Amino acid sequence: MCGQRRLLDLSALRRLYASVTMYLDSATPAAANFLGVETLGLDDPLLPAPIKAAIFLAVGDLYANREAVATVPYYTNPTYERLLAPYRVMEV
User: Fold this and answer.
1) pLDDT beneath 50: ranges in the chain
2) What is the pTM of this model?
């Protein structure tokens, strides 16, 4: 198979798209919750790049660990928190 192109079959591509969409639909409200805002729109041109990066980081993490078992300890990603922290709404 060296030198040959490997095609992704259509059903696998649909499953991948569905998974990434689900992770994106989960990561976006999670970021909004962390920031203390009602909603976030990824298509909003005024949404700062670090917030978008944090959401995509969470999507990548969810995808990479999609088969994780519950016996593995959960750790928060400090990069995610550092990207979002400057935009977090805090009550006084």
Assistant:
1) none
2) 0.80
